[in-house]
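Deliverable D5.2: sample structural annotation.
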Amino acid sequence: MSNARFFFLYRYLLENTCEGHTAKGEDIRAQYENHEFGSDIRSVYRDIHQLNAPATGLEVLYDGRTKGYWLKTRLFSQSELQLIIDGIQSSKFITQAKARDLTQRIQKLTDAHTRAVLNRQAVVANRIRNMNESVLDETGRLYRAIREDKKVSFRFFHYDREKKKQYSKSGGRYIVSPYAILWNDGNCYLYAYEEEKERFSHFRIDRMEDIRLLALPRVGKDEYKEKDLTARQPKIFNMFSGEECLVKLRCINRLADVMLDRFGREIILTPDDEAHFLVNVPVELSPPFYAWIASFGRQVKILSPEKVVNGMRDFLQKSMDMYKNDGKM
């Protein structure tokens, strides 16, 4: 079998067959004839046999019910492709146009029958997306900088109420040492060391602009070695860094799932009475943490340490003061 015919047969089976949807030998013979590969049915069966040889790493099965062949070997299963597409579609980090383009290209990795199923299921309603079309290219530059051990510079902005960009540092450039790309709540962040502040900070990548690689080696390597980002992720809320603290909470029983999902299955839930349990969780103190606790109302209470209890009282008091008749933001 020629290389061209081998590749054609593989692509035809890949794009047109799957379990339950097969191609008969005569169907393949007709495709051969259309593409000037000959019209001998015996060559079709010989080619399928060669395609199915152990050396190719491919497996072509015969379905006696439909009397046809289908390609079992796939780079991704349907469920794996669905996970990839759902991740793209649910991400706020990727614009709608880019999400649609990536989804269409990923669907080409499978057959037409599976593609139709993926197309029907790949829908996330009312997803709010960012407005930065160049964000994927910018992320690529950051990965390159991490790989090549280089500093980067960039401008950082926020949107005002007119949806216009307002730049930090009066439009000046940040110079940082990038170390990791982190995902949180559908957004993507750069975790980088700021030498002038002697600390690590988070930067939303879709708020970064004109990223440039610098001919300067990264700093902060020793500090980064001490960071366990996997362990740190549950401690931070909305990517707000703060003082790390072990906080004791009293929760109603039905919030066990919430605590395990947030802080991991390693935390210990200790029964307090028939309706409540106690748990000690490591957090980085910040307004979003207090807001998270407040969202549970009387179902969660901070018991200790006292400074965190006072921080919660202060957070709630300022919120209540704002809603008084004469309250100011």
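Annotation notes: Residues 121-126 have pLDDT under 50 and may be disordered. The longest strand covers residues 174-184.
The annotation will be released with the project's public dataset once the embargo ends.
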